[in-house]
Amino acid sequence: MTTNPGNRRSRSGFWRWAEDRPRVKVVIEDVELTIATLCGLLVVWIFLSVIRYLGYPANRVDLFDTLHYWATLAVMVNFLAGFVWNAFTLTFLQQKRT
Questions:
Q1: What is the rounded CA–CA span in Å between residue 71 and residue 45?
Q2: Which stretches of the chain are DSSP H helices?
């Protein structure tokens, strides 16, 4: 669909950026995966809080809590590394085409 630039309404930076579908798709897929994983980690955190409240042995809860911390860190590092990698490759490919 082509539009006449004279007929375009003024758009914010996000909407100009969102017109580039492949980049938006890559970022949205990464964000969806990260949100789903963080929701899983939230469920585990709630579970840890419940078993601590119910009197489960403190040393085991602390061990699970440590594992949960490192899993959360791994998710964040994975998301950021993937985001940077996708941004880098898309920028590199865009420069190579022009």
A1: 11
A2: 13-18, 21-53, 58-97
